[in-house]
Input
Amino acid sequence: MKVKIVKSSNIDTQIRFITKEDAGAIRDFKGESGNIAVIYDKKQTLIYCGLGEKKKVTTDTIRGAAAGGIKRAVDLKRKRVALIDPKPGRAVDHSSVSCLEGALLGAYSFGKYKTEKPHGISLCEFVTAGISRHEADTVSAVCDCTFYARDLVNDNAHVTYPEQLAREARKIASSNSVSCTVLTEREISRKGLGLLEAVGQGSPYPPRLIIMRYSGNKNSKKQSAIIGKGITFDSGGQNLKPSGHIETMRCDMSGAAAVLGTMKALTILKPKINVLGVVAAAHNAIGAKSYFPGDIYKSHSGKTVEITNADAEGRLVLADAFSYVQKHYKPAEIIDLATLTGAILVALGDTMAGLFSNDESLSRKLFDAGEKTGERLWRIPVREEHEEAMKSDLADLRNTSKLKNGYAGSITGAAFLKEFIKEIPWAHLDIAGTAYNEGEARGEVPKYGTGFGVRLLVEYLLAK
Ligand code: BES
Ligand code: ZN
Ligand code: ZN
Output
């Protein structure tokens, strides 16, 4: 969707916003947040989006309302819309940015496998004084990169297998600010990334370690690393997932998709920072060559791991990525994104991702980026008893905890990862609840792949 910033618009379909207090002017309309009324006035179609009570309007309300409005315009098969920047009656931070963001994000659909392609809107005239051309371009670029991440998640696992993720990374690296190195299965084996090798060995689609490097500040050696879990399909391996749990598992590379989407955004926005974008990619397949529960494997760090469950594979591939990246690239900090545990859905539901960290300042900055973008985080502690629960009798570590009933499953997953972090700030985002929406679309969050993490990471990195 092309965006024009204008002072007024002649387009006959308008998306307007209205608070509960002002909604009385429209018959049978309450103006609650989420409500939409369509009014036909001569040649005009006026789509009114409710914002609810004036005093409760936030940046999230506006983003969600704009997404609802644009969806209605899509349903009505409009090609061009005017988006009228809301005046909620009090100052709301970043309201114009959220409005545009909601409208762009809400128009997304994944039409690749539909014979009849979904309707798309080609032009949005944004009637506003609250945003510059440059800001609008930034919002558009980040939304496009969110779509890119959503598309990667939504496509078939037979399309986005590990080498295909590597191809995507190389494509992003064809921009001259990014370089890309890919370790093949032979190199993974030769360099001793025994955990990544083990998880990938059961599949005809071999594993990859993908390392992109965005260099926006050649005067600085400092670089952040963002690392994504890229399990292109998680069958559970020899601990095969049952029906009801396996069907969505092409989403298990959502962390990787967020990293690729973020790196792509950096090539467009060109901030003066250095960022490593890393993807640990493997297909956790069941087959004669799959790694066996009970066996012990040696990680790249040297620590040995008893495989107590072949379905706890994400932490294994990430562990090797962590130690390889720390050894060879010396990042100043690591942020990983992973659809790591089903337990995070129990703890936080599907509207917040779990944040686990060894660093107060990094946690605070990520939390704030989450509040601003609506990709929200909630911090959960990792304590000694959780680290203790990951110790094995036969090996150094086990990949699932000794705690009964898998208690604190998201924390013990994080505790395992922590074993592979040396003395640097680290944050782990468990996005198993937020990366893939099994329910109906809500506001800017679509059904299926959500692209969670791209806007959050860009916000965090650009503030550096
Ligand atoms: N990919 C799954 C986690 C997941 C669950 C992602 C639901 C998205 C939605 C992960 O690899 C997994 O299977 N985790 C196990 C860990 C357990 C064996 C300790 C889980 O959550 O059950
Ligand atoms: Zn699994
Ligand atoms: Zn998994």
